[in-house]
Amino acid sequence: MGQNRKWADIPAGQDNPLSFAVSARDRSVVDMVRQAVEHKQVMLAYQAVVPAGQQDRPAFYEGLIRVLDETGRVIPARDFINIVEVTETGRIIDCLALEKGLKTLSDYPDLRLAINMSARSIGYARWLRILKRGLAQDPTIAERLILEITENSAMLVPEIVTGFMKELQRQGISFALDDFGAGYTSFRFLRDFFFDIVKIDGQFIRGVATDADNQVLTAALLAIGRQFDMITVAESVEKPEDAAYLAALGIDCLQGYYFGAPTVRPPWLDNTLAHASA
C-alpha cells in the first residue's frame, strides 16, 4: 500500500519511477533554459582554433553560447541542447548566439569568428533579420564570419542547406561542417555541400597518438576533407602528443583544451582593457 502511495503522483504511462524522474528533471532544465533565454541570460565563451604549424597564433575563434541560470551559473549544454534543438527556444538560442557574434566581430575588426547554428534556423525570420542587419552595418563582417552546422543538422534538409550556403558564400561567409564523422553524412551530399571547413569529431581525436583505430579513421576523414578542398580542424585536442601527431599527419588546424578552454575573457578583451588603462 505504501508503495502505491509513493507512485500515486506518477502520471499514467510513466509506470517506471526512474524514467519519470529523468523526464521530470529534463522538463525542469528545459523550463529553466527557456526562462533564461527569454531574459537573454546568455553569453559567448570563446575557444581558439590554431594552425597546426603555428600554434601560438589562432587562425580564428569559435564562439560557444552559454546559458545562465538565475544565480548566474552556466547550465551545461549537454543537459538541454538535444531537447531544445527542435523547439522555438532552440531557434532563439541561435538568434542570440548570432547577435552576440556579430557584435563581437563589429567591435574587433581583426577577429575571425565561428558561430554555431542549426539547419532548422535557415528559414527562421528573426535569425535572417539579425544576419542581414549585421552584414549591412559592417562590410568586413561577412568575410570574417564562419557559420558552423553540425553534421546531423545538415543532413536534416541537405538540399535547403546547400542552397542557403551558396547564397551566403557569395557574400563572403564561410561554412564549417561540425562534428564530422559523428553523424550519417551521405558522401553524395558532402560532394554538393561545398563546406569551407570540416571539423573532425573529437571521438576520433582523443588519444589519437596511441590509438591505432583512431589513427586510421582520422586519416580517412582527413583524406575526405582534402578531396573536397576543405580546411581540416581536429576537435578535442587535449594532449601534446596528440597535437604533434595530428600536425605530422597533415591536419590544418587544431582546437581543444590543450590550447585553452572556452573563456568569457578572451585575450582581445584583456588587451583592450590594458590599452584603456595605460
From TrEMBL:
It holds the Pfam family EAL. InterPro entries: Cyclic-di-GMP_PDE-like, EAL_dom, EAL_sf. Residues 26-276 form the EAL domain. CDD domains: EAL. One of its GO terms (molecular function) is cyclic-guanylate-specific phosphodiesterase activity. This is EAL domain, c-di-GMP-specific phosphodiesterase class I (Or its enzymatically inactive variant). It comes from Roseovarius azorensis.
